[in-house]
Amino acid sequence: MSTARPKLAAASRSVTGKKVAHMRRDGRLPAVVFGRGLASDNVSVDAHEFEQLRRHAGPNTLIDLSVDGGTAAPVLVSNVQIGVVTRRPLHVDLFVVRMTEELTVDVPLVSEGTSDAIENGGGTLMHVIEHVRVRALPDHLPQSIHYSIDSLATFDDQIHVSDLVIPADATLLNDPTEVVAKVLPPRVEEVVEAPEAAEGAEVAAEGAVGAAAGSGATESDAG
Alpha carbon of 35 to those of 58, 98, 139, 201: distances in Å? Predict the structure, then answer.
């Protein structure tokens, strides 16, 4: 893949723990850079720049990371800690990759097309799995895998992992028989109507019992 990789600048940081709160207020996002055989390095990146990168790059996009203006190294975003209230990144882990070593990652699945079981049968598409495990060299990691639901003509039809089209330079690790998607039939709620005549008779009977009870109480009180 010859497309230019997105770039991200980082600065070394000595502040750790709860003291990084003021760093976030200043628009800096704490991060850790790590890799196999490398010591972890505490850095910070521009929070706005990182957000823009996340919005436009896929989950398996390689990023050229430069720390303190040094030589850029290819990294993957390994993990992003998100604030519960703000829903904004609080911390990010950046994994330094070796371009000659394969990686195993989760790749999101994207459905396309139309299904007769949905359009004419009123069914609902069910995504049994939303990711698959794929192994490939860092610069050949797919961002997503698309599949068509046109074959889902009835509620008995299913799409399996074996039906997915995987790039030739990547290896799919899931069980080929695993179900990817199917269409669920519409739910039909059974409505049970109580016979009106029976209900009327039951009410009348209850009234008769109540009247008899009331009459008995009057006689007792009088006695």
Answer: 20, 9, 16, 80
**How far, in Å, are 23, 31, 171, 199 from residue 47 at the CA level?**
10, 10, 34, 69
User: Does the 103-184 domain belong in CATH 1.10.1040.20?
Assistant: no
Strand arrangement, sheet containing 170-172: 145-148, 103-112, 131-136, 170-172
Which amino acid appears at position 178 of this protein? E
H helices of 34-108, in order, are 47-56
- Walk across the sheet containing 179-184 and list its strands: 124-127, 179-184, 158-160
pLDDT, mean of each 10-residue run, the chain (223 residues): 81 90 93 94 96 90 96 95 91 96 96 96 96 97 96 97 96 98 85 57 46 42 42
Hey, what amino acid is at 144? S
CATH homologous superfamily of 7-96: Ribosomal Protein L25; Chain P (2.40.240.10)
CATH code 2.40.240.10 region(s) in the chain:
7-96
CA distance 39 to 35: 7
Residue 175 token pair: 């069980």
For residue 41 the two structure tokens come to 């390095």
Torsion of CA 93, 94, 96, 100, to 10 degrees: 100
pLDDT at 58: 85
